[in-house]
Design goal:
Layout: E1 4-8, E2 12-14, E3 18-25, E4 31-40, E5 51-54, E6 61-63, E7 75-81, E8 88-97, E9 105-112, E10 115-121, E11 126-132, E12 138-146, E13 153-160, E14 164-171, E15 179-184, E16 193-197, E17 214-222, E18 228-233, E19 242-245, E20 253-256, E21 260-263, E22 284-287, E23 301-304, E24 312-320, E25 323-332, E26 340-344, H1 346-352, H2 360-371, E27 400-402, H3 430-442, E28 448-451, H4 452-458, H5 460-463, E29 468-471, E30 477-478, H6 480-491, E31 495-498, E32 506-507, E33 509-510, E34 517-519, H7 549-552, H8 556-560, E35 563-573, E36 575-577, E37 600-601, E38 612-618, E39 630-636, E40 643-644, E41 663-670, E42 676-679, H9 697-710
Length: 720
């Protein structure tokens, strides 16, 4: 585990408000703390120039350290079930195992002191009943036939008052895999029982052990003569972290580490795909042995943000002889201080955060050391869980992500990949937004900074004070509330500058009772590393349909004129001006520039070597590009590694010429309330803003746009 790391309780804090920090320091070593504001967070010595400003606070100095833990694996837990089990007890569940051969896994378990009874998958992949006496002696009864992967079974274990221990395994679609077994064990004692679902009681420091991979529905306990003690109905409270017990004791269990709900159950017929229409068919929860939820670390320190700290990108820098970390956060203004705001895409940061790429730590180690960059990576710290771009150990996609954990790939003074271009920074996320922040300062444009999470929390109210909203390098994930806020802001005359690529693409929704958690369901098309299974495309949080905003009817073509159309290697290419730049409507863009058709710009950059690259967006009237949208420049990328997005393909050939989809379309259009939209359509664009200290055609063009957008003079939609 990283020797010194931490996280915050939120992505941003207003001037004069508090933000909490949770830190773990190995061996309880003390550490030093200071706060910095990042002007540029890129550690590349050949980059635009790493720049941080020390921000003194009363917290500066040495702090006591405490080691705090992170344990993987989701499960359900109930501290005490007040029931007398001496007359016998029966544990039962319906299961859909996804890794039955991986070894011992708990299904339903209880313990009274040192006495345990558990329904498990045994080490040999069979349904097993285990009874453990207070002296540690374990008696097992195991079905002689193994469980098969991804098939439904009713399983049960019963311990009678006379010590007879039985286990049964009943497949819903038999293929010679039914069976039962019996053994003799000590009868159950009296006392309140602690319950575990999808795991077994702890055998060490972790809160549970032997985590199960797969779906469970209808787990239950029965007492003497079959009297009901507990029956958990997973169709109730679908968006919550509580498993509701419909039994006589209301023994509701707490769900730990974010197992996935709104999963098809054993009775799903395929006739409905929205769990809200037939919740009785969605009574399963999918548990994983590598799920990770909010870590729940103790607060180490809390910062009362000084009222005079400017809005911007900040970090708590912690260090000791074992390591260091920069824990990032945004300072918001207590009241808006500018007409321009940079919107940091923290929804996308969270969805990508903890992206485990095997071998990445070793790959970047030498360069990170040479650059003085942070060296820790998610693959070196698997205890912090996975990204939505990973698969679980059982092959299912990761749909739930918490902010309440260290995301070691979402840091300042860090690079994300080995840029293939000499001198390239290989940056992403926090560092990429710092390019925009640094550039705005360089052109003298005052601005505030807020986050996606602020936008979701407040809706239009977060944007309404600002004339110009700048969406950053990769604003890919948004909630419905956020999309509505963008639309509403344009309706009242707001101006939107989209300086990235692959933006406004996927839906992501937070939990109502756990707002630090986001959910993504990858339904129907899109570039994706996993897909939602049939019947599982509706979010457990809020119940909305998941997937691409284009499929949901809110394509980014309508919002910003363009949408994701091609992806390739992290390489950047130039733009060239086209005839649209000669239109009088964009005369403000041309100031100080040679904009003759064919003139190139953005030929260099700190991300892939050029301004148009990696993931590109283009116009398409079929999906909602406004008819009056002007394309003023194009970054055409004809390269063997650049391929079309899946959702555009109905047959084996693309319906458009390659230059019309393998490109970044720089687009402008006006809105009816006096506002306007400017989009660049490239993920590497911001890496070119500070080339040559910002003295380039690309920088001047972008500066012309932001200055005109900040001007209150209204834009006028042309007659067509």
């Amino acid at each position: 585990m990283h020797a010194l790391t931490g996280y915050t309780d939120r992505w941003s804090a207003k001037q004069g408000s508090a933000i909490r920090f949770m830190v773990s320091s190995s061996d309880n070593r003390p550490f030093t703390l200071r706060f910095v504001r990042h002007i540029c967070a890129d550690p590349n010595p050949a980059g635009p120039g790493y720049a941080e400003v020390a921000m003194p606070s009363p917290l500066d100095g040495t702090h006591a350290g405490i080691a705090q833990s992170a344990h993987l694996g989701s499960f359900g837990h109930l501290a005490a079930l007040p029931a007398d089990l001496r007359g016998g007890v029966r544990l039962a569940a319906t299961i859909w195992p996804t890794t039955p051969a991986k070894g011992r896994q708990g299904l339903v378990a209880l313990r009274i002191g040192a006495w345990h009874l558990a329904l498990t998958i045994g080490a040999d992949g069979t349904t097993t009943a285990e009874a453990t006496a207070p002296d540690g002696t374990m008696i097992r009864a195991a079905v002689p036939r193994r469980l098969h992967v991804r098939r439904w079974y009713d399983v049960a274990a019963e311990l009678r008052h006379d010590g007879h221990l039985t286990v049964t395994q009943t497949p819903h679609a038999p293929i010679a895999d039914a069976g039962d077994a019996m053994a003799l064990a000590a009868p159950p004692p009296s006392g309140a029982a602690e319950i575990f679902l999808a795991a077994l009681p702890p055998d060490g420091a972790a809160p549970a052990s032997a985590h199960y991979n797969g779906k469970i529905e209808r787990p239950s306990l029965r007492g003497p003569a079959g009297a009901p003690l507990a029956a958990w109905d997973f169709t109730i409270g679908m968006g919550s972290q509580i498993a509701t017990d419909t039994g006589p004791h209301a023994a509701h269990a707490r769900l730990v580490n974010l197992p996935t709900r709104a999963m098809t159950g054993s009775t799903w017929t395929g006739a409905v795909h929205d769990w809200k229409s037939a919740p009785e068919q969605y009574g399963a929860i999918h548990f994983h042995d590598d799920d990770q939820g909010p870590l729940g670390w103790r607060e180490t320190f809390a910062l009362d943000v000084p009222p005079d700290w400017p809005s911007g990108l900040y970090a708590a820098h912690i260090a000791n002889r074992s390591g260091e970390d920069y824990i990032p956060f945004v300072v918001r203004p207590a009241k808006p201080q500018s007409d321009v705001v940079l919107l940091v895409p923290t929804f996308s940061y969270q969805v990508y955060g903890c992206y485990v790429r095997p071998g990445r730590g070793g790959e970047i180690a030498a360069r990170a050391a040479a650059w003085g960059a942070l060296r820790e990576t998610p693959d070196m710290n698997p205890q912090f869980g996975l990204s939505c771009y990973n698969h679980h150990a059982d092959g299912s996609g990761v749909a739930l992500m918490t902010q309440a954990r260290p995301m070691l790939d979402t840091r300042p003074r860090q690079f994300a990949l080995m840029d293939p271009v000499a001198g390239g920074s290989g940056t992403a996320r926090w560092v990429s937004e710092s390019y925009i922040d640094q550039w705005l300062h360089s052109i003298g444009m005052d601005h505030d900074v807020i986050t996606d999470h602020d936008l979701h929390d407040e809706g239009l109210a977060a944007l309404a004070p600002y004339r110009v909203v700048i969406a950053g390098q990769h604003p890919e994930y948004h909630s419905e509330r956020m999309m509505q806020a963008f639309e509403d802001h344009l309706k009242i005359g707001g101006r939107l500058m989209y300086l990235g690529g692959n933006g406004f693409y996927w839906r992501a929704e937070p939990a109502a009772d756990q707002p630090e958690t986001l959910e993504v369901r990858r339904a129907e098309g899109g570039i994706r590393v996993w897909e939602a299974m049939p019947g599982e495309s509706y979010h457990q949080f809020g119940g909305g349909y998941g997937g691409l905003w284009r499929r949901i009817g809110r394509s980014s073509h309508k919002l910003v004129g363009i949408s994701f159309s091609t992806q390739g290697r992290h390489l950047g290419f130039p733009y060239h001006f086209i005839d649209g730049m000669q239109d009088d409507r964009v005369a403000f863009m041309r100031e100080g520039l040679d904009v003759a058709a064919g003139v190139t710009f953005g030929t260099a950059g700190f991300m892939g070597g050029g301004a148009a690259g990696f993931e590109l967006d283009s116009v398409n009237p079929k999906y909602g590009t406004p008819p009056h949208a002007l394309v003023v420049a194009k970054g055409i990328v004809i390269h063997p590694d650049y391929a079309w997005v899946n959702e555009d393909m109905l047959v084996h050939r693309h319906p458009l010429p390659q230059q019309d989809w393998s490109c970044a379309d720089m687009t402008f259009f006006e809105t009816h309330a006096g506002g306007a939209v400017f989009s660049v359509g490239s993920m590497t664009y911001v890496g070119s803003l500070m080339v040559n200290g910002g003295d380039t055609a690309l920088s001047r063009l972008t500066a012309n746009v932001v200055r005109r957008f900040a001007d209150p003079a209204p834009f006028v939609v042309p007659d067509l």
